[in-house]
Amino acid sequence: MRVLLLSDTHIPRRARDLPESVWTEVDRADAVVHAGDWCDAESLDRLAARARRLVAVYGNNDGPELRARLPEIARATLGGVRFAVVHETGATRGREKRCERRFGDSDVLVFGHSHIPWDTSTPSGLRLLNPGSPTDRRRQPHHTFMTLEAADGEVREVRLHELP
């Protein structure tokens, strides 16, 4: 199962739309995971209409309309892999221990907020993935998103994609 990981799209504040290469990945993906900070409901509607399956949460920049439609935490099993999705995980220091306590029943935690790509594992094996942002790189050298393959209960081939 091919999974596209997105976060912090901030449309229309930081971009008018997702980059075309991200839409191409939406079309290729079996599931899209979005870790919040959409900023408008139209972005949610467009992605939901085009994605085969969407697993999504709201972020700190999402207003009442998005918060009414999306959970703070989402969980899904994709390719036999147990995913949890949340926007914020707190400070970098102590992140692995905090996330392990809170999401230890998952195999992968997808999060956002910082716009900084992140790929680590906790001592128990929980994989922490932040895809960065495809539209608002902040202090990062590139706009980014991630893809991964999930099959037979295993995560395979996590890839960070850098956009020009």
The outline comes out as globular
Briefly, what CATH class?
Alpha Beta
Class computed from helices, strands and strand pairing = alpha/beta
What's the CATH topology name? Purple Acid Phosphatase, chain A, domain 2
Number of helices: 4
The CATH architecture category equals 4-Layer Sandwich
What are the secondary-structure elements, in order, as H or E? EHEHEHEEHEEEEE
Q: Determine the strand fraction and express it as a percent band.
A: 25-35%
CATH homologous superfamily identity: Metallo-dependent phosphatases
Order of strands, main sheet, comes to: 3-2-1-9-10
* Mean pLDDT value: 96
Largest sheet: 5 strands, mixed
Tell me how many strands there are. 10
Q: pLDDT below 50 for ≥5 consecutive residues: which ranges?
A: none
Head-to-tail CA distance between termini: 27 Å
EC number: 3.1.4.-
Keywords: Metal-binding
Cofactor: a divalent metal cation
GO molecular function: hydrolase activity; metal ion binding
Summarize this structure as a short list of keywords or feature phrases.
single chain, alpha/beta, five-stranded mixed sheet, 21% helix
Topology:
Elements: E1 2-6, H1 20-28, E2 31-34, H2 41-50, E3 54-56, H3 64-69, E4 73-78, E5 81-86, H4 95-103, E6 108-110, E7 118-121, E8 127-130, E9 143-151, E10 154-163
Parallel strand pairs: 1-2, 2-3, 5-6, 6-8
Antiparallel strand pairs: 1-9, 4-5, 7-8, 9-10
EC number: 3.1.4.-
Pfam families: Metallophos_2
Domain Calcineurin-like phosphoesterase: 1-152
